[in-house]
């Protein structure tokens, strides 16, 4: 029988509509203005007593509190009014120390029953919602120094293998100096090292009773090191941002040694800064034997007990660069630990170092680069000067029981939060050089609320005009087309919410274009039905022929547009990608609603009924 769907097809359409409605509902619940209180390093515990102090202070200041909650990441206080956010932040900031950050936030208000179904609202881009902006500076001098330290360790190992005696190594600026007992050892070392390290200019030095070899990096080598440092840091920061789960972030180079990071929708600067700006790395070293020469050892304290120290070898077995994967877990005593997998080279080096040192202690050295700011007087004016410094501390010192391979674990961490963040940093890769925060701020919508309101209004006006046109032009069929159009919009919003796509202002333009294209498919169908009626077909035959014969034209038109949208997404960036995403999803949803949903409604209205005239 013409114009009748089987029951399974109606049920399938109904299922899609119900799922689309459920996953679009979270967008009806606006986010609450809130204040987030959290630890700078994630190791400060915030409890109910402190929450009561904050709530009492805000209430005394006349600020209305909606709700408050404590989680593993800190305290979240939801406010009734956006205008109270800044005032509340300043009040709480005066009550906490430097180890705690108070940040503005927008907290989701999705009901629990929707969250249990993994339903969440669309992610808004930086232009619509705002977020955090960081300007980072890469320490190029430290990059060169780190490379020289690595070279010095390799040279010392090479000299020991060849039984060439040396006294000491010294790194200064871009120069590495090796001291020897006599010129014979110096000349043999120069001949050996020069073959393996061609990036240095070599010069012999005479020192009283001994001799020295001075090696200075060439200008080309320094430039290559600096380029590698900035590019490697860009890659690492992108990996870290991806681990944060931020939609459509911006991580790009600015000038010779700076990087801009913008995270849409993130207003908790403490959490973002801990992950993005962390410069932590690990070094695995053997504990020094009592008879080891002093110039081959270094003494370090423990992170959780500064009074306790250990003397370690200067040579590094491997660093965090060799880690291929890392995850947090708990040991048999319930204490946090990090499970580590090494790459092939790192596993080989670890196995070679441990199989010949069973029974000896091996330390895990935690290295973190930070800055401190102090105010000095220059030319009668106060100027803030940033001083970089490096903290090194042992987090684990354990006896090697057997030869280690590609997998092992690190214990001795202070908290589960520290273990999770260390695992994240090791997974995403270490920085090639320290980075410092030059500028950090929470920013509002970059395009301004007025432009956002205009974008939303354009969708509303476009939808209204299309609805009126379809009603006037196609009457009853216009009502069906408008219902399908509304369903199309619901499905589009649901798809963007489920896929985690980011809505930007160009994305709103894509939605407006989608609405027009969705109606275009219905116009083709309805005009085709009119033609079939004029050619003398019956009502049922005209409806059937209209949908069947317009199908090819609709598919051709939408597929070509979809291909263009996919090309835009693959080669575009930022706003162009946002437009392409909404356009692609809109094309797919409009084809479904125009070809299936509207057909189902027409079938239910006219299918199998003795209709003599169509209001079209």
TrEMBL record:
- Known Pfam families for this protein? Sec_GG, SecD-TM1, SecD_1st, SecD_SecF_C, SecDF_P1_head
Please state every residue range assigned to the domain named Protein translocase subunit SecDF P1. 230-287
Q: Where in the numbering of this chain does the SecD export protein N-terminal TM domain appear?
A: 2-104
Keyword Transmembrane helix: yes or no?
yes
Q: How does it sit in the membrane?
A: Multi-pass membrane protein
What domain of life is recorded for the organism? Bacteria
Q: Where are the transmembrane segments?
A: 455-472, 479-501, 507-529, 550-572, 578-597
Occurrences of domain Protein export membrane protein SecD/SecF C-terminal (ranges):
438-602
This protein's assembly is summarised as: Forms a complex with SecF. Part of the essential Sec protein translocation apparatus which comprises SecA, SecYEG and auxiliary proteins SecDF-YajC and YidC.
Q: Which PANTHER family match?
A: PROTEIN TRANSLOCASE SUBUNIT SECD, PROTEIN-EXPORT MEMBRANE PROTEIN SEC
Entry's family note:
Belongs to the SecD/SecF family. SecD subfamily.
HAMAP family reported for this sequence? SecD_B
Quote the protein name from its UniProt record.
Protein translocase subunit SecD
């Amino acid at each position: 029988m013409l114009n009748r769907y089987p029951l399974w097809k109606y049920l399938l359409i109904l299922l899609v509509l119900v799922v689309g409605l459920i996953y679009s509902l979270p967008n009806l619940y606006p986010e609450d203005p809130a204040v987030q209180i959290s630890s700078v390093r994630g190791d400060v515990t915030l409890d109910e007593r402190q929450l009561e102090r904050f709530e009492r202070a805000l209430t005394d200041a006349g600020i209305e509190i909606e709700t408050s909650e404590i989680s593993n990441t800190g305290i979240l206080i939801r406010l009734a009014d956006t205008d109270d956010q800044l005032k509340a932040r300043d009040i709480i900031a005066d009550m906490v120390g430097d180890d705690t950050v108070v940040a503005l936030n927008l907290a989701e208000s999705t009901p629990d029953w929707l969250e249990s179904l993994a339903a969440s609202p669309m992610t808004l881009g930086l232009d619509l919602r705002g977020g955090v902006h960081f300007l980072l500076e890469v320490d190029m001098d430290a990059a060169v120094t780190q490379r020289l330290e690595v070279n010095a360790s390799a040279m010392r190992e090479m000299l020991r293998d060849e039984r060439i005696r040396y006294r000491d190594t010294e790194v200064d600026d871009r120069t590495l100096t090796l001291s020897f007992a006599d010129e014979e050892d110096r000349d043999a070392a120069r001949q050996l090292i020069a073959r393996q390290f061609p990036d240095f200019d070599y010069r012999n030095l005479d020192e009283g009773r001994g001799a020295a070899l001075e090696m200075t990096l060439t200008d080309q080598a320094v430039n290559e090191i600096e380029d590698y440092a900035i590019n490697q840091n860009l890659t690492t920061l992108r990996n870290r941002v991806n681990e944060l789960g931020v939609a459509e972030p911006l991580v790009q180079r600015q000038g010779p040694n700076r990087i801009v990071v913008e995270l849409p929708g993130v207003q908790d600067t403490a959490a973002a800064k801990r992950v993005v700006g962390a410069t932590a790395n690990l070094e695995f070293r053997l504990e020094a034997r009592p008879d080891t020469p002093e110039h081959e050892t270094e003494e370090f304290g423990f992170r959780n007990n500064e009074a306790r120290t250990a003397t370690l070898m200067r040579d590094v077995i491997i660093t965090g660069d060799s880690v291929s994967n890392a995850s947090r877990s708990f040991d048999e005593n319930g204490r946090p630990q990090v499970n580590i997998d090494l790459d092939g080279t790192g596993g080989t080096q670890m196995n070679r170092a441990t199989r010949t040192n069973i029974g000896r202690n091996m330390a895990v050295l935690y290295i973190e680069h930070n800055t401190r700011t102090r105010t000095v007087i220059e030319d009668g004016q106060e100027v803030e000067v940033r001083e970089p410094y490096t903290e090194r501390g042992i987090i684990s010192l354990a006896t090697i029981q057997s030869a280690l391979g590609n997998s092992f674990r690190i214990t001795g961490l202070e908290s589960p939060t520290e273990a999770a963040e260390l695992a994240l940093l090791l997974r995403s890769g270490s920085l090639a050089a320290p980075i410092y925060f030059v500028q950090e701020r929470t920013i509002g919508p970059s395009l301004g609320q007025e432009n956002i309101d205009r974008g939303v209004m354009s969708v509303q006006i476009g939808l209204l005009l299309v609805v009126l046109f379809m009603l006037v032009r196609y009457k009853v069929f216009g009502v069906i087309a408008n219902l399908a159009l509304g369903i199309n919009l619901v499905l589009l919003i649901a798809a963007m919410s489920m896929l985690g796509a980011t809505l930007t202002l160009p994305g709103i333009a894509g939605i407006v274009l989608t609405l027009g294209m969705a109606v275009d498919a219905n116009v083709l169908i309805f005009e085709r039905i009119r033609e079939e009626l004029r050619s003398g077909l019956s009502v049922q035959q005209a409806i059937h022929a209209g949908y069947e014969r317009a199908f090819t034209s609709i598919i051709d038109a939408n597929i070509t547009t979809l291909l263009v949208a996919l090309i835009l997404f693959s080669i575009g960036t930022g706003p162009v990608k946002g437009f392409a995403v909404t356009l692609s999803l809109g094309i797919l949803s409009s084809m479904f609603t125009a070809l299936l949903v509207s057909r189902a409604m027409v079938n239910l209205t006219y299918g199998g009924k003795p209709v003599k005239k169509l209001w079209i």
